[in-house]
């Protein structure tokens, strides 16, 4: 029975990064995956979605080509080609990860992993079973879509994000159940490509964890794209017949659509791993870990969505480094105070830290700075004038508590604020003391930071004393 220093279960953005990090430090490593490397993010989530997002954004910009003096006679969209592009991007990136694993001499086992005891793993494939030993085990099995029994998900008419990313033809109409980031991303993409879209959300508003001013910009976009939104509304049942799905909503409403996407959240994928027999503690369907990603069993670690701490691919990759360092004898602790995230709606959202409302709920007195894309010279040149930048700071000392950005390149712009927060910079240091190139979109970060004290040059307003 072959023995490894570290065995990683799951080859998503947590697992494959853990395997490579361990190999870089000289460990003998294996990676166990029953599907394709890259996990949900690469194969059925982040990447194929963003490939379609790019197509939708490009298609929207083409509609404004004449503003730039570019005349295009009757452009047309071939969704089949867009889907092929999406799939080819995924295929290339999967191949790239496989080559990286090979280059780092990570042994890749295909099959389902079952922890049989301390340092013992059984790997099952159809008609084949093997066993290995490992001094340390890192569980990185990710998450899966919630599949409410009442919504009759059949993979043909009623879909999860997995199935909708496999369709080859653009549906004429789509109903999205769930107004979180997954639902809103798909709603924007398909509406921009010409599908009639309806969004149904039980909560009072869309994207409930995001800043309300930012969400209003997405709502404006939805309205311009013809997206119908029903909030504080539940789906009581779905009936599929003759290629049409009828949704019966609360309040005796009905909606018909060719396809229905169920996007009501994701749950840790930790079933059938032998965790209970191995003594690994779980709670509310997730693996319990300490701040060093250690489970209740010595030598067993867990990272990513399996822990349900923060369901983001880049958090899983970050946790991978912590878990590997500790498995190799270190004592590192995860720090989640600065975690940027991006939502690829149209326009896109970048956010980090606390929203203004969240800070106030914690009893923190804040000052907020805002700057509009409309006031940015670069945004005007790009023809991307919808959106705003908002920075939230502690009124006491100006420490940056968070930021919310909606508009072109928001997912990239938020990285500057995250870096500033990580370095402990105040809003004044980010805005008044950091030189920003002109003309660029990042100047809006500078202006919003300066506006915390009422000192933004390109924004009319009353001067406020810096706290």
TrEMBL record:
Entry binding sites for FAD: 50, 141-143
GO CC terms, sorted: cytoplasm
Binding site residues for NAD(+): 178-185, 201, 265, 305
Alphabetical list of Pfam families matching this protein: Pyr_redox_2, Pyr_redox_dim
Active site (catalytic residues): 438
EC number(s) recorded for this UniProt protein: 1.8.1.4
Residues covered by the Pyridine nucleotide-disulphide oxidoreductase dimerisation domain: 339-449
InterPro entries: Class-I_Pyr_Nuc-Dis_Oxidored, FAD/NAD-bd_sf, FAD/NAD-binding_dom, FAD/NAD-linked_Rdtase_dimer_sf, Lipoamide_DH, Pyr_nuc-diS_OxRdtase, Pyr_nucl-diS_OxRdtase_dimer, Pyr_OxRdtase_I_AS
Record flagged with keyword Iron: no
SUPFAM superfamilies from the UniProt entry: FAD/NAD(P)-binding domain (SSF51905), FAD/NAD-linked reductases, dimerisation (C-terminal) domain (SSF55424)
Main location: cytoplasm
Cystines in this chain: 41-46
Subcellular location(s) per record: Cytoplasm
Domain FAD/NAD(P)-binding: residue ranges: 4-320
Gene Ontology BP terms: 2-oxoglutarate metabolic process
Catalytic activities: N(6)-[(R)-dihydrolipoyl]-L-lysyl-[protein] + NAD(+) = N(6)-[(R)-lipoyl]-L-lysyl-[protein] + NADH + H(+)
Molecular functions (GO terms): dihydrolipoyl dehydrogenase (NADH) activity; flavin adenine dinucleotide binding
Co-factor remark: Binds 1 FAD per subunit.
Enzyme class, broadest EC rank: oxidoreductase
Keyword Flavoprotein: yes
Misc. comment: The active site is a redox-active disulfide bond.
Stated family: Belongs to the class-I pyridine nucleotide-disulfide oxidoreductase family.
PANTHER family: DIHYDROLIPOYL DEHYDROGENASE, DISULFIDE OXIDOREDUCTASE
Protein name (database record): Dihydrolipoyl dehydrogenase
């Amino acid at each position: 029975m072959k023995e490894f220093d570290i065995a990683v279960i799951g080859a998503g953005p947590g697992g494959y990064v853990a395997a490579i990090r361990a190999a870089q430090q000289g460990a003998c490593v294996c990676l166990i995956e029953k599907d394709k490397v890259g996990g949900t993010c690469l194969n059925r989530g982040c990447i194929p979605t963003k490939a379609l997002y790019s197509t939708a954004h490009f298609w929207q910009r083409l509609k404004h080509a004449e503003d730039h003096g570019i005349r295009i006679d009757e452009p047309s969209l071939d969704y089949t080609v867009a889907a092929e592009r999406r799939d080819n991007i995924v295929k290339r990136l999967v191949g790239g990860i496989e080559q990286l694993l090979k280059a780092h001499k990570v042994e890749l086992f295909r099959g389902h992993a079952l922890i049989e005891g301390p340092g013992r793993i059984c790997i099952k494939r159809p008609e084949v079973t093997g066993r290995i030993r490992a001094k340390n085990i890192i569980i990185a099995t990710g998450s899966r879509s919630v599949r409410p029994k009442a919504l009759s998900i059949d993979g043909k008419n009623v879909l999860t994000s997995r199935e909708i990313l496999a369709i080859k033809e653009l549906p004429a109409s789509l109903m999205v159940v769930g107004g979180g980031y997954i639902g809103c991303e798909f709603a924007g993409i398909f509406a921009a490509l010409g599908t009639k879209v309806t969004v149904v959300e039980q909560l009072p508003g869309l994207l409930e964890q995001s800043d309300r001013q930012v969400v209003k910009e997405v709502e404006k976009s939805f309205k311009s794209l013809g997206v119908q939104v029903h909030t504080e509304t539940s789906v009581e049942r779905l009936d599929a017949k003759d290629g049409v799905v009828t949704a019966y909503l609360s309040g005796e409403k009905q909606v018909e659509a060719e396809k229905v996407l169920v996007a009501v959240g994701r749950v840790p994928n930790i079933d059938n791993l032998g965790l209970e027999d191995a003594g690994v503690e779980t709670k509310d369907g997730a693996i319990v870990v300490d701040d060093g990603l250690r489970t209740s069993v010595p030598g067993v670690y867990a990272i990513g969505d399996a822990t349900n701490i923060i369901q983001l691919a880049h958090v899983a990759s970050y946790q991978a480094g912590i878990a590997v360092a500790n498995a190799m004898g270190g004592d590192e602790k995860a720090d989640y105070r600065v975690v940027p995230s991006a939502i690829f709606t149209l326009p896109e959202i970048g956010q980090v830290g606390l929203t203004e409302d969240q800070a106030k709920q914690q009893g923190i007195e804040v000052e907020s700075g805002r700057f509009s894309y409309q006031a940015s010279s670069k945004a005007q040149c790009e023809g991307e004038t919808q959106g705003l930048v908002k920075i939230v700071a502690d009124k006491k000392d100006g420490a940056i508590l968070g930021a919310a950005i909606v508009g072109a390149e928001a997912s990239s712009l938020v990285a500057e604020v995250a870096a500033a927060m990580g370095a402990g910079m105040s809003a004044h240091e980010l805005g008044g003391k950091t030189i920003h190139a002109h003309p660029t979109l990042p100047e809006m970060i500078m202006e919003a930071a300066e506006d915390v004290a009422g000192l933004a040059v390109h924004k009319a307003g009353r001067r406020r004393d810096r706290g």
